[in-house]
Amino acid sequence: MALVFLPALARMAVCGGTHGNELSGVYVVQEMERQRKDLLDHYIDQNNFLNQAVNMFFSAVNCPITDSSPYEVWRAQELNNLLGLKGSTDATDIICDLHNTTSNMGLTLIHYTSSDWVTLHICKYLQTKITKVPVRVLVLDVPISDAYSLESVSKHGFSLEIGPQPHGVVRADIYIIMKEAVDLTIDWIHKFNSGTVFEGGDVETFKFIKSVDYPRDPETRTLTAAIHPQLQDKDFCLLKRGDPLFLSFSGETVNYKEEETLHPFFINEAAYYEKGIAFHLGKKMMLTIPTVQVQKD
Amino acid sequence: MALVFLPALARMAVCGGTHGNELSGVYVVQEMERQRKDLLDHYIDQNNFLNQAVNMFFSAVNCPITDSSPYEVWRAQELNNLLGLKGSTDATDIICDLHNTTSNMGLTLIHYTSSDWVTLHICKYLQTKITKVPVRVLVLDVPISDAYSLESVSKHGFSLEIGPQPHGVVRADIYIIMKEAVDLTIDWIHKFNSGTVFEGGDVETFKFIKSVDYPRDPETRTLTAAIHPQLQDKDFCLLKRGDPLFLSFSGETVNYKEEETLHPFFINEAAYYEKGIAFHLGKKMMLTIPTVQVQKD
């Protein structure tokens, strides 16, 4: 297996509350802030970690939920200035942006390229260490300059999605898993910066293919069906021709009609109703990643 | 057992969307509207049912979520004029107001008096007929003139709460149970108006005692703990001294300290965070209701 040397990761930001009603990240960041004196001083001393961004992000908690308000545009600019600039050598090394979903997606790591060895190694590490819930990797393979999410501002970065959890609610079980995932990410970076060699290998990922909308009334655009009980909570199952997708409010089943078997995810996510998305469909994809080690100075 | 004669129920309103992001009721009312020609014509012919209110209420779907906006005050006035007037002889006979909760409360029927034989008989009927989920009855024993909910406008009325369902989401399993509960309520009224004698007996209810807030930072008022995993989703369990209530974000458990055993409900309801309510506590209470039959003209 090829050995690839990569630069040390000097600056990391853990961000909660990018979507203000997804509460796990808000309280994970609050708790890290509280632990800052103990935990992060330790990392700063030993590994040149900077905690400043964690502090800054806590202030994003109460931002409005809509994607397009002037406040959000202004805030995105501000965060880019703070953590970026996007695409520049000064950009933060790694951003971990914390999200919740109402879908039963367990822990899902979302990123924007299939060739970022740092984030893929972190995914592999979390898949090995976390056993309480499924850990999946989702690749949205778009050019980084087109990526619209917060973590695209940094050199490396991923979104950490955990569900199911209603928006506006914090569940202790979901909080504990998110906190563990963040702690393990920091643990990986710590080990990587200290010279640990991380063996390469295969990582199972899902690649986004397309979205499917709810059946709607052609005139009013109101929903005429909900996710079928046999599909509800079955994120990342294998969908075959004839499997039930929707159950109309009058009781009729709508089936999957396509030949290609695909994997549905973000099934029945609250924030996607207005975007016209009942679920996404993805394809399983094995990625081979090289062995990595930090560059010597 | 005493036999009580009660007036026929001539006007009923089924209301969804009183809280606009609680979607089950929105789609139940939409579906009833669609079925109107078949279903309600039938009832109007045979039982003097009026459907007008069902139609009117569908327009409440997209009202804002806050309780205190000028729109909501204006709308409450309008609904009182349409279905009331509250406390008058012209008031609608029965209102069934449909709600969802993020709490694991199954089907809970909430009403404002422990001596309304009509609603208690409907509760008893639903408890007998619905077996897929627990059916509980919650009594908030306040004078009807002080009751602030929609159904208090009518002569009889109850809120029908179903969960767990995230706000902004419609789950088929929850929709099906709500629809069944509404159909059975109409079924009961139909039978009652047709002269069926409903036997009295005991009805198990829960009486509201008090509310408990989350542990909060004394200065910032932000939460410092979530509902404990052992309490989460355990609505209506029996809470004893020493049982875990909360798990702090740093890992400490907060226990129930009181001697009195009580039953928690509305555990971790999203809409109650801002009201300072982590859960309510109630006491089990057996109510004896008389046999009832419709008054002859």
UniProtKB/TrEMBL annotation, chains A, B:
Q: Name one GO cellular component term.
A: apical plasma membrane
| Top enzyme category | hydrolase
Keywords of this entry: Cell membrane, Cytoplasm, Hydrolase, Membrane, Metal-binding, Signal, Zinc
How far does the signal peptide extend, from start to end residue? 1-20
Boundaries of each Succinylglutamate desuccinylase/Aspartoacylase catalytic domain copy? 54-183
**Could you tell me which Gene3D superfamilies the record lists for this protein?**
2.20.25.160, Zn peptidases (3.40.630.10)
Q: How the protein sits in the membrane?
A: Peripheral membrane protein
What Enzyme Commission number(s) appear in the record?
A: 3.5.1.114
Q: Where in the cell is it found?
A: Apical cell membrane; Cytoplasm
Tell me which residues this entry annotates as catalytic. 161
Q: Which PANTHER family match?
A: ASPARTOACYLASE, N-ACYL-AROMATIC-L-AMINO ACID AMIDOHYDROLASE (CARBOXYLATE-FORMING)
Family stated for the protein in its record:
Belongs to the AspA/AstE family. Aspartoacylase subfamily.
Spell out the protein name for this chain. Answer: N-acyl-aromatic-L-amino acid amidohydrolase
Q: Which organism is it from?
A: Sinocyclocheilus anshuiensis
* Source taxonomy: Eukaryota, Metazoa, Chordata, Craniata, Vertebrata
